[in-house]
Amino acid sequence: MNVCNNYIAGEWLAGAAVTVNRNPSNVADVVGEYAQADAAQTRTAVAAAKAAFPAWATGSIQERSNILDRAGSEVLARKDELGRLLSREEGKTLPEGIGEAMRAGQIFKFFAGEVLRAAGEKLPSVRPGVDVEVTREPIGVVGLITPWNFPIAIPAWKIAPALAHGNTVVFKPADLVPGSAWALAEILVKAGLPAGVFNLVMGRGSVVGEVLVNHPDVAAISFTGSVGTGRAIAAKAIGRMAKLQLEMGGKNPLVVLDDADLAVAVNAATQGAYYSTGQRCTASSRLIVTAGIHDRFVAALTAKLKSLKVDDALAAGTDIGPVVDQSQLDQDLAYVEVGKAEGATLAVGGERLQRANDGFYLAPALFTGTTNAMRIAREEIFGPVACVIEAKDYDEALALANDTEFGLCSGIVTTSLKHASHYKRHAQAGMVMVNLPTAGVDYHVPFGGRKGSSYGSREQGRYAAEFFTTVKTTYTAP
Ligand code: NAD
Fold first, then answer.
1. Of 45, 166, 168, 190, which sits most exposed with the smallest number of CB within 10 A?
2. What residues are paired with 406 via a beta bridge?
3. Which distant-in-sequence residues (6+ apart) come within 8 Å of 329 by Cβ?
């Protein structure tokens, strides 16, 4: 098997070591072998990005747009192959993997257009005869650090705006999913990026990530991952006054009111809490259900969960693939025990499943009789585990929904315009869903949260410019 190397300063370079990437649906299946950079190689990548910055920042925007457009076209043309690779290394189902690859392609297409829409403002000055211009400029070398759960979409939604706005990039993917990152890097290289503009540095967070976070030549860090890692990165990056964007965890509520359409509610809960094996920052792991519909909702959701097919991510008909690896499975199983010990009732699932191949299969778990004070209702589990919290009415449901340290996404299922309107205004989250699952967002509008979920400006769409540019105000006298 060929080792897939890092891409630094326009060359594919072997690393200091090699890792093997395995398929969580079948641990005997080796997906590939990938280079692991050390600190010195990471510093070389930062130097290459620094050297490439002036020409890229001031070069032809038509060329920049063309490159992003070509990359987007190739990702879209190869969506089936990229989706298969993604599902094989991460464990989400093949339709989910293909859908994610498509989204990555669309993101590159969107930012190919954004390159040409870099508008500023021209205003009169309060001083007669003077002009004021407000323009945006790139910030420099950006370090992009991504998690394993969206192996191609999250890299795309950081790399595309970073490049579109004229920055140069050092990209460090998550250790568990180098395959999708490497495939995307190869597509970007083929699309014609000049040497040094984009660098792929695979390796450990504690090695590669640490260098990026601490390096004085890395002007900005955009990170998506867990709260713990995000906090540690923040302490260092803010200490040296780097620009910082953090997207972290969630404990997203889905409120179901008495007047909800039961089928819509069960579908939103199933999709939002369990699809992609529940491994989404936007997963609705707290189902807050009012008393009049509670028993019907629990019965219907339990029946639905029993009917879901948990199996190999690549097999036709699989609804839910495996958990990503042994340590995440151990964490999920440990939380199932925590929920039982706290006095919640395990209505269905929560046990490890055996399938034809040796993989990390878990039966989707639903707890009832949960209070919002329990750990299973407060801590991000990041697996196919959700809990039902009963509320007496809308007001209590809203209060429970907002009673969390997180604030990424918040959902409600109701046929009441009054309650939907009130919820949209009062949900303390960066994203709100009405009669939709909390997970599943568009690529052309802002993504991000409040409170402990996010720090810094929003990702995606036009709002990405907030992070990937800096504003200049220019005064001109005649
Ligand atoms: P993680 O925090 O373990 O790792 C994220 C990335 O940080 C990886 O690339 C990792 O190698 C790197 N890293 C680890 N230690 C580092 C260090 N000391 N310095 C620099 N980089 C370091 O997260 P994960 O397990 O890969 O992903 C799961 C988490 O991501 C969940 O908490 C989930 O909620 C979150 N997530 C959030 C969003 C969002 O947009 N809010 C989206 C997807 C995932």
1. 190
2. 451
3. 323, 352, 360, 362, 383
Outline which parts of the chain fall under CATH 3.40.605.10.
3-248+453-476
Q: Name the segment(s) of the chain with CATH classification 3.40.309.10.
A: 253-434
Nearest to 118 by CA among 52, 75, 57: 57
Q: What is the pLDDT of residue 478?
A: 87
Q: Which atom of ligand 1 is nearest to the CA of 150?
A: 43
Which CATH architecture group holds 3-248+453-476? 3-Layer(aba) Sandwich (3.40)
Superfamily for the 253-434 domain: Aldehyde Dehydrogenase; Chain A, domain 2 (3.40.309.10)
Pocket of ligand 1, candidates 224, 227, 335, 458: which has the most ligand atoms within 8 Å of its Cβ, to mutate? 224
Please say whether the beta carbons of 218 and 141 come within 8 A. yes
Tokens matching residue 371: 């209070």
Q: In the annotation, is 281 catalytic?
A: yes
Per residue in 54-69, pLDDT (tens digit) is: 999 999 999 999 999 9
Question: For a pocket test of ligand 1, which of 170, 229, 281, 379 has the largest count of ligand atoms closer than 8 A to its C-beta?
Answer: 229
pTM of this structure: 0.98
- Nearest atom within ligand 1 for CA of residue 204: 11
Task: Concatenate the DSSP letters of all residues of 216-239 into one string.
Answer: TT--EEEEES-HHHHHHHHHHHHH
Identify the segments of the chain with pLDDT beneath 50: none
pLDDT digits (tens, 9 = 90+) for 192-241: 999 999 999 999 999 999 999 999 999 999 999 999 999 999 999 999 99
* Axis crossing angle, helix 417-426 with helix 394-402, rounded to the nearest 10: 20
How far, in Å, CA of 43 to CA of 165, rounded?
Answer: 23
Beta strands in 337-468, from DSSP E residues, in sequence order: 345-348, 352-353, 361-362, 365-370, 385-391, 406-407, 409-413, 431-434, 450-451, 454-455
Which member of 4, 281, 387, 409 is catalytic?
Answer: 281
